[in-house]
């Protein structure tokens, strides 16, 4: 009998004594040899354990939990390229249904319950792409009007608050539009109609109003801004359209505040973007941009592509992408309906209000927004308690809760706040645990334990 002992095979060796446990895995170059599937999985899975828990990430608006059935549907449709509409007609039909549902939710004009072409809009990779498309339509229509009047169109500008998400800055830089930022001030973190009135000129392609700012969750006064723009136009001034960035609030306000007029019920509003992967409650990345009617989307921006045997109109910045996000969004739409979304948003709001009440009872703590507009609350320290919101954020992270601390936008930078975004999957019980953690952290910091942390960057 031979005394030779064969080297253990990858499949028979204990989990961490094969290649994964003994050889380094190249991080920046392709490895020279292949790796067993299970070993490759374990290597990546173990590294990802170093991430924070997504469910306890109270910094992000992005969905971190869906029904298991939605998980299965999305896993089953990863491989479907949504641009191949001839090959995947069912996925294409689902996208069209979603666009129509969003357009109807926002009271778009001329919608037919039987004609899918009556809605003007498209699904996108989140609100970032949606913003780019809406901005392009604004610029294109402004340029067409200027050309028809024989006027110069070399210096377009866009009016928005300094509180906008960075994608609006990107749009202006990428597409050569001058951004006209309206400043904030201590105690006011939204734009005002008076600011808009002073900023509008003949080169303004549009005004952006935010339904749910990322800094505090506040709703900007869309109706009042529209009235101001109406007055300017009626007085012989420029006729400036209004775009609503409803990335955060578009799937909240229709259910929590259905009587509030902010959408296409206001004639001045020509386009709206919304993130399905925020309060649409679908995993990233999915968003939508819809227009009031076809006349507000210039036909010249729509391409007709003969792709894989089918004539396909397209107005997107992306081409190939998975169809699983629209499938996940459609699942939520038919699974929840108006009643389901309303119940979830009311529950999240009630949890936010409970958390706000608990936090407001802490000495030196001031609530800025309590979560009644959308389920986002923001709060700050007042006076000089001997520690900062950045200290609180750091200590909470050590307990598993990721609560961002950041300074406010231009002209209000002296104000530093904490923000909590409540999403489906963060229970009332976890909210109580968070309030207890904040109270305990503040008590420890007041006693001089764990201070001295610096400002973090703003988290979207």
Question: What report would you give on this structure?
Answer:
- The chain is of the alpha/beta class and 460 residues long.
- It is built from 12 helices and 13 strands.
- The chain has a 7-stranded mixed β-sheet, sandwiched between helices.
- Strand 12 (405-407) and strand 13 form a beta hairpin.
- Helix 4 (89-105) runs parallel beside helix 10 (324-360), helix 5 (126-148) crosses helix 6 and helix 7 packs parallel to helix 8 (222-234).
- The longest helix is centred in the C-terminal third of the chain and has 37 residues, at 324-360.
Q: Which overall shape is indicated by the principal axes computed on the Cα atoms?
A: globular
Distance between the termini: 67 Å
Strand content: 5-15%
Strand order of the largest sheet: 1-7-6-5-4-2-3
Low-confidence stretches: none
The averaged pLDDT comes out at 92
The radius of gyration is 25 Å
Proportion in helices: 25-40%
Number of strands: 13
Count of helical segments? 12
What does the oligomeric state look like here? single chain
Overall SS class: alpha/beta
Largest sheet: 7 strands, mixed
């Amino acid at each position: 009998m031979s005394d030779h002992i064969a080297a253990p095979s990858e499949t028979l060796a204990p989990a961490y004594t094969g290649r994964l446990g003994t050889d380094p895995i190249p991080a920046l170059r392709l490895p020279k040899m292949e790796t067993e599937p299970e070993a490759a999985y374990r290597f990546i899975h173990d590294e990802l354990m170093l991430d924070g828990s997504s469910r306890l990430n109270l910094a992000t608006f992005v969905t971190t939990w869906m029904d298991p059935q939605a998980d299965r549907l999305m896993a089953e449709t990863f491989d479907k390229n949504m641009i191949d509409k001839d090959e995947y007609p069912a996925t294409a039909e689902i996208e069209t249904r979603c666009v129509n549902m969003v357009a109807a939710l926002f009271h778009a004009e001329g919608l037919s319950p039987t004609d899918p072409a009556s809605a003007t809009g498209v699904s996108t990779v989140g609100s970032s792409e949606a913003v780019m498309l809406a901005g392009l339509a604004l610029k294109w229509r402004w340029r067409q009007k200027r050309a028809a009047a024989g006027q110069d169109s070399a210096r377009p500008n866009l009016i928005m608050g300094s509180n906008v998400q960075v994608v609006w800055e990107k749009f202006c830089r990428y597409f050569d539009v001058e951004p006209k930022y309206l400043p904030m001030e201590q105690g006011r973190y939204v734009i005002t109609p008076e600011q808009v009135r002073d900023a509008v000129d003949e080169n303004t392609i549009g005004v952006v109003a935010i339904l749910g700012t990322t800094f505090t969750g506040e709703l900007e006064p869309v109706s009042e801004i529209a009235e101001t723009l109406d007055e300017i136009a009626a007085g012989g001034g420029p006729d400036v359209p209004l775009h609503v960035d409803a990335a955060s609030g578009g799937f909240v306000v229709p259910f929590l505040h259905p009587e509030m007029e902010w959408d296409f019920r206001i004639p001045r509003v020509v386009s709206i973007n919304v993130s399905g992967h925020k309060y649409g409650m679908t995993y990233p990345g999915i968003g939508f941009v819809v227009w009031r009617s076809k006349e507000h989307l210039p036909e010249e921006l729509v391409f007709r592509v003969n792709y894989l045997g089918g004539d396909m109109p397209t107005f997107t910045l992306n081409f190939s992408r998975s169809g699983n996000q629209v499938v996940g969004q459609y699942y939520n739409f038919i699974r929840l309906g108006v009643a389901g979304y309303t119940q979830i948003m009311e529950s999240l709001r009630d949890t936010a209000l409970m958390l706000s009440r608990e936090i407001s009872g802490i000495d030196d703590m001031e609530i800025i927004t309590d979560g009644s507009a959308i389920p986002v609350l923001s709060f700050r320290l007042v006076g000089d308690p001997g520690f900062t919101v950045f200290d609180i954020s750091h200590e909470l992270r050590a307990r598993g809760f990721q609560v961002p601390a950041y300074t406010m936008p231009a002209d209000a930078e002296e104000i530093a706040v904490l923000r909590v975004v409540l999403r489906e999957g963060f229970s009332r019980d976890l909210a109580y645990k968070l309030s207890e953690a904040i109270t305990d952290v503040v008590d420890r910091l007041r006693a001089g334990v764990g201070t001295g942390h610096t400002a973090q960057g703003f988290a979207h």
